[in-house]
Automatic annotation (TrEMBL), chains A, B:
It comes from the Bacteria. GO terms for cellular component: cytosol. InterPro entries: THDP-binding, Transketo_C/PFOR_II, Transketolase-like_C_2, Transketolase-like_Pyr-bd, Transketolase_bac-like, Transketolase_BS, Transketolase_CS, Transketolase_fam. Gene3D superfamilies: 3.40.50.920, 3.40.50.970. This is Transketolase. One of its GO terms (biological process) is pentose-phosphate shunt. Its cofactor is thiamine diphosphate; Mg(2+); Ca(2+); Mn(2+). Mg(2+) binds at D156, N186, I188.
Length: 666, 666
């Protein structure tokens, strides 16, 4: 078969499968796979380094379909290339419950899916994280072990989302030359022509961010090939703006938004088959075309085998370290290091802001867990996420282990997801808790993708003081606790901070948020306990003798306040116990027996948290008392704010007494 | 006084007040006010159109301090210009509880503060909304009534945040030539030199988005003046990149991040006074300098008076309409229009997705409330936010009332805030509920600023079906309900949709989110009720005879499921009532008596919502049953998903029977 004809057939195989699957599902997005089929064919047959028989090969090129709605492009490719689990049956079950072919690609559903995409812009930022991880691992393990590219296929929508511009600016700054973004420039959005909402010169815009960029005809295989070849030589990241026709091949809907997000319809599909000279039955790929794709799947096998040999030839220690970190296993020394630190703290309990305690913990554990990569969204001195030994990554120099993400919280969080997805590194980075809102779509995806990404969120309440309500979280704890598979940790002192770090690192199947104070905290845990008491989410931190009349439940900085209130109530003859709840999420996972034991039987339950009540009724009951916030904060010194909003030991005591001794106080 | 000397003295007055206030507060950000004092002096003395005696003059130029941490710049200006409420005492009480001088500027605290800033990037996007509102009102009321500029002072951080690039791209596309952004290009971020995290060519980047841009020396009054003059002539929005020295005047800290976010210290302030030739006591402004500023405050008074005359000369109807819309009053006809629609629905109850019901409501009310401005983040046909009569705003043509925001949810939400802050328009715009996460920082600010902005969020649960978990909200209802002063509305059918729109419009002191389904809903409200039953957040939608054994509580699409479950339970001899809860927020505001009446006394309470349980314990109690989601959704046809996740009448009935008839089912 002549080369051009072969290319066309291979690309048309993608188009046909996409049309057929969307038609069968009665929903989905045929436009992108049909429009980008030529790009994908050239990329996968001539450039991408991968081996379907070893989809987890650490040095494979990564391919990110940032425009996740075009999922049938990816599923078609995986089937055509011979990825084991992506059978033709899966394509026929596109968008059906239980299939591996969800509406948008989901990492973990089938090998070859590198990340979960759909929410636009996230894929580009994931890819920036992958490309950064690649260079950092390259700096650690050398060209023989990690030396690959990261390719992205993105849409107008990806580039319109602000997150992508954050990630693009960072990639340009750091000169991530192994990152190649192909922009499916089809001029069409859901509402219609791009001119309805945008007139950005995307090439000039990324050039302003330090990228190499080029415009090509996205249906001309040679132009695509040349652009990819050039991009691989560039010393900067590259954007290839590939002009395409959405729904290429559909006689009436091509080039229109009608091709974007719904089945073409039986008649249009029939006519598209004629137009594309594709006379085959739905879901049928002729043997010669399938063979051509399967041979492409074999292309990089020799390189993968050579890599394997190089890997086996590595120094045993380095090989072990690479294998351990790629597997995501923690070094056994970690637990010992934390135990030692807890012993020190028990011997000499420190009064520290938990953000400072966190830095102390990091000083102790990062040397033991060198795959931990710190960072901050331009709040390094406030988030305390940089240890004294950490060198910052700089343009072209990836030997460091700390990243200045800039004022780009969303891009930071999504790039951290990409680093975790790449494997080999454990990213942790900080911003203020109130700006968790800026990161939220990426935090959600970390949870959905089950990635170990550790978000360090400091300045966690009105306790930050004078910066005022724009910077004071009140609803953020509740909002984060609401995200499934996200572990929110709010330690009460230095010991709990150490334990929470231990838990976050051990949580390998999901992200954690460690929530820390700006203000100093009184030590609460004076005695050494080998057990990680935060592990079950809640525990009795101060008990009373005899049956408790009052159970106080508190988190973080409010634990000390609750313990002070307990002293007042004890003095008044009302035996009171205090439960610290470093993690609602972990507590919710405990047995009913444990939960009931911790919730206890005291007739009066009081929750104390400098935040809103939502979520607390599950612990204190609908008739429990709550001492916290009911609205936004205010600007002022933090001690005054705590008094102003009534979050003090005295206020707790007063509220409790109004219930316990109604005659006296009513 | 020679002009140059006068300028220097006036600018130094800002610098001195900023240093003094931060010193007195022992916290704050002196660097920006000192660096940008020359810019602000030229802008306010020679360009900005304003009148301190009428701070709400509708045609005033708007000034947005996007870099809100530099709040002392704004407070100093307001004091120097003679704004009534900004006394020297307020400056002395900078960042103290109860002052008007919060850490970051807060709209409503004092006249002259146009928006609440601090979370970076938001101010630029607010300003885009203001500039857009200006042009739209100009198209409606003419050059004589609305014809002003919107000025922004922003920082590196503002431009690094993705939201600003969304807003900038839209402003360039729409050719918002009245928008002038001055970039305080001081090369310093909190972590240090900008080169740690960024090497973007900001001028080239905005030019790629269709802006005019220029670089100037931000300490040269004549360059500043010329750039502003040129910008006012441009047919495009303008970025003026003004190179400045952060902390200008501080002998040791100027040009360093040390000047950014903490007091300079007594010695440095003393030396800065010498350097700036400012021998005056803290907080003391010599009479001649204060006079020069106060005279500036009088500059535009004749223009304001001329405006007043033009306004009074307007056609009475137009004048009345302008006054009404600027005051934010709704037309009396609105309630009648909604009552008529409810009567129609009662006569012929429609089976409609609530997003389609919402469109029908809009078709009915937008003609009555012409200040309503629709829009969508490129999901117009899905969000159903465009009525048949609405024309879209286009580059240079602002006569429409619908905005194609593009795939820029965050920029959209923040620009809507700016439109509301401008006054005269009521913005409502849509995206999918899952992407409320992308808008979240702006939604929070709408709530904090008490602005009437209506977010229409469709595709509100697993009910969206095949698009899968990336697009299926499960935690978003809880997360939105957590935001103080935000009214979340989730109607159960077409009648409730009409009532929810009525409530959202009537909520003039805060934003609302109207949460709508993709899938069809069975009508629940067959009888006409004059009263808006959604008004109190929850009401009995289906009662039983005699004492209820079961109370079912549900929202939105789950109300029909709960009513079907009630029928099953009634049949089994367990009298069951159903409560519809269109708004948790409104319900929480009701009296205890009303709340208790609605919660009722049935021994078994069950909550039903295709979302997580968080927040429900306040209604169903900690031992109540909940039928909903415990994790992320899945991709598949929606009816199958409801069955798969056990959110069906049968599943509710089964769970209830396990409690009600334990011997039979256990």
């Amino acid at each position: 078969m002549p080369e051009a004809e072969k290319h066309a057939s291979m690309a048309n195989a993608i188009r046909a499968l996409a049309m057929d699957a969307v038609e069968a599902a009665k929903s989905g997005h045929p436009g992108l796979p049909m429009g980008a089929a030529d790009i994908a064919t050239v990329l996968f047959t001539r450039h991408l380094k991968f081996d379907p028989t070893d989809p987890n090969w650490p040095d494979r090129d990564r391919f990110v379909l940032s425009a996740g709605h075009g999922s049938m492009l990816l599923y078609s490719l995986l089937y055509l290339l011979g990825y084991d689990e992506m059978t033709i049956e899966e394509l026929k079950n596109f968008r059906q419950l239980g299939s591996k072919t969800a509406g948008h690609p989901e990492v973990g559903e089938a090998p070859g899916i590198e990340t979960t995409t759909g929410p636009l812009g996230q894929g580009i930022a994931n890819a920036v994280g992958m490309a950064l991880a690649e260079r950092m691992l390259n700096a650690r393990f050398g060209d023989g072990i990690i030396d690959h590219h990261t390719y992205v296929l993105c849409s107008d929508g990806d580039l319109m989302e602000g997150i992508s511009q954050e990630a693009i600016a960072l990639a340009g700054h750091l000169k991530l030359s192994r990152l190649i973004v192909i922009f499916d420039d089809n001029h069409i959005t859901i509402d219609g022509d791009i001119s309805l909402s945008d007139s950005t010169d995307q090439v000039a815009r990324v050039e302003a961010s330090g990228w190499n960029a080029v415009r090509i005809d996205g249906h001309d295989p040679e132009q695509i090939d040349r652009a990819l070849t050039d991009a691989r030589q560039s010393d900067r990241p590259t954007l290839i703006a590939a002009r395409t026709t959405i729904g290429f091949g559909a006689p009436n809907k091509a080039g229109k938004s009608a091709a974007h997000g719904s089945p073409l319809g039986e008649k249009e599909v029939q006519e598209a088959r004629e137009r594309l000279d594709w006379p085959y039955e739905p879901f049928h790929i002729p043997a010669d075309i399938l063979d051509a794709w399967r041979i492409t799947g074999l292309r990089a096998r020799p390189r993968r085998k050579a890599w394997q040999e190089r890997f086996e030839g590595l120094d045993a220690e380095l090989r072990g370290e690479f294998a351990r970190t790629m597997a995501g296993d923690l070094p056994p020394r970690l637990d010992r290091a934390i135990a030692e630190l807890k012993r020190e703290y028990a011997a000499e309990p420190p009064t520290l802001a938990s953000r400072k305690a966190s830095q102390a913990v990091l000083e102790c554990i990062v040397p033991v867990v060198p795959e931990m990569i710190g960072g901050s969204g331009d709040l390094t001195g406030s988030n305390n996420t940089r240890t004294s030994e950490m060198k910052a990554v700089a343009p072209g120099d990836f030997s460091g282990s700390f990243i200045h993400w800039g004022i780009r919280e969303h891009g930071m969080a999504a790039a951290m997801n990409g680093m975790a997805l790449h494997k080999g590194l454990i990213p942790f980075s900080g911003t203020f808790l109130t700006f968790s809102d800026y990161c939220r779509p990426a935090i959600r995806l970390a949870a959905l993708m089950r990635q170990r990404v550790i978000f360090v969120m400091t300045h966690d309440s009105i306790g930050l003081g004078e910066d005022g309500p724009t910077h004071q979280p009140v609803e953020h704890l509740a909002a984060l606790r609401a995200i499934p598979n996200l572990t929110v940790l709010r330690p009460a002192d230095a010991v709990e901070t150490a334990e929470c770090w231990q838990l976050a690192l051990a949580t390998s199947t999901g992200p954690s948020v460690i929530v820390l104070t700006r203000q100093n905290l009184t030590p609460m845990r004076g005695e050494y306990e080998e057990d990680n008491l935060c592990r079950r989410g809640a525990y009795v931190i101060a008990d009373c003798s005899g049956d408790a009349e009052v159970s106080l439940f508190a988190t973080g900085s409010e634990v000390a306040i609750a313990v002070a209130a307990k002293d007042l109530l004890d003095e008044r003859g009302h035996p009171t116990r205090v439960v610290s709840i470093p993690s609602f999420d972990l507590f919710a996972q405990q047995s009913d027996v444990y939960r009931q034991e911790i919730i206890g039987t005291a007739p009066l339950r009081i929750g104390v948290e400098a935040a809103i009540r939502q979520g607390w009724d599950a612990i204190i009951g609908e008739h429990g008392l709550f001492v916290g916030m009911t609205g936004f904060g205010a600007s002022g010194p933090y001690e005054e704010l705590y008094r102003h909003f009534g979050i003090t030991a005295e206020a707790i005591c007063e509220k409790a007494l109004a219930r316990l001794e109604p005659k006296e106080t009513d």
